[in-house]
Amino acid sequence: MRFFADLHIHSPHSIACSRDLNPENLCRWGQLKGIFVIGSGDFTHPLWLKELQEKLEEDEGRLFALRKELIPVKVPSSCRAQVRFLLSGEISCIYQKAGKTRKVHALVFVPDFTSAVKLTERLAKIGSITSDGRPILKLDAKKLLEMVLEVSPEAMLVPAHVWTPHFSVLGAASAFSSVEECFEELTPYIYAVETGLSSDPAMNWRLSSLDGMRLISNSDAHSPAKLGREATIFDTDLSYGSIMAAIKTGKGLCGTVEYLPEKGKYHSDGHRSCGIRLTPRETIAHGFRCPACGKKITVGVLHRVEELADRPQGFKPPGTPPFHSVIPLQELIAETLKIGAGSKRVERIYFTMLEKLGNELAILLEKRYEEIAGASSVEIADAIVGVREGTIRIEPGYDGKFGSIRIE
């Protein structure tokens, strides 16, 4: 079965996350977006874990379905589908190693509530697991991997948004030069890395050290409507074991859906307070200091990839699956109309398109130009096709500021 999965999200217990995040809304938005397997997010938070246990029931594939009485009805018939949940969580490891402060975010998958409880109990002995849905712990990422493997041989750890400057394995601030430098002899148990919003597979292919690892993509959604801005495409049985096997071996992992990396808020170098965005060459010329105020520049993903790359731009390892670049539909509608993405008019057009054409990913990736134009407008159809063909102009994001698109 071919399906889209988004395995990295958050809960209402995470800082700066929507109160609307609950299993019912996630099930609804999963259908609207075309995401059929959703990471639970934040299973290490006791209140969220309790809610998941109350509202979800395990199926024959050891994924979890929303209890029938809770399944939302406010979904257009064109989008209705089964949605399953997979237990996942993100953990923030902040620690000293080799004389440097390391800040690494790790994505963890577990097969059942028993494993989730075991890991949660072990983490609670290290630090607080209640102050944030994403616990911030003084814990070496390698030690976390050891704990994950001890909890269940079927559990998995994936380095999250692997290039993000401040909280990742390869980001400029964490300063590991390879995944192996972080996880040492346990590196063979790192089967994949997450690309993050500011990079795509083409950027990751430039590092030969990542060749043995699959690339997966997820939204890191902080609200239900952000689901599916990135996703991983599988062609497997709808089961925990099959999904993990695909990530381990690549068989059944058919590619990813990628937020255009220039849209990501850490793609380029810059200093947001001064409104300064720089190319890597300009950053180096200014001594990694803001030319306006003299403070340190935040080195973005593009620059960091260039520092570590041992292959030229455009290199593609043989046998790697393809990827598809997207911009969320509501953003495209808003930019076409030159109005806010949260406006009632954008919402009305968005849901009209879903009712006529099906879920959002089908519209962005599959529907023909004529179908899209007929359900919306020629301008919106032009924008969607422009993203597919790579002709949309983007002002890159930097230092925590998302990039902006320009549709002429």
Short description:
This protein is α/β, with parallel strands linked by helices and 408 residues long.
Walk me through this protein's architecture:
By secondary structure, the chain is α/β, with parallel strands linked by helices. It has two domains: 2-262, TIM Barrel (Alpha-Beta Barrel); 328-391, no CATH class. The chain has helices at 23-33, 46-55, 113-124, 141-151, 179-183, 201-204, 240-249, 280-285, 301-308, 329-337, 344-357, 360-365, 369-375, 378-389, and strands spanning 2-6, 37-39, 56-58, 64-66, 84-86, 88-97, 100-109, 136-137, 156-159, 192-194, 214-216, 231-235, 253-259, 269-271, 276-278, 323-326, 393-395, 404-406. It has a six-stranded mixed beta sheet with strand order 5-2-1-12-13-16. Strand 3 (56-58) and strand 4 form a beta hairpin. It is globular, with a radius of gyration of 21 Å.
The tally of helices reads: 14
Strand content: 15-25%
Q: Give the CATH architecture of the largest domain.
A: Alpha-Beta Barrel
CATH superfamily of the largest domain: Metal-dependent hydrolases
Please tell me the total number of domains: 2
Radius of gyration, whole Å: 21 Å
Strand line-up in the sheet with most strands? 5-2-1-12-13-16
> Strand tally, please?
18
Per the CATH scheme, the topology name of the largest domain is TIM Barrel
Rounded average pLDDT: 97
The biggest sheet, with number of strands, parallel, antiparallel or mixed sense and barrel status, is: 6 strands, mixed
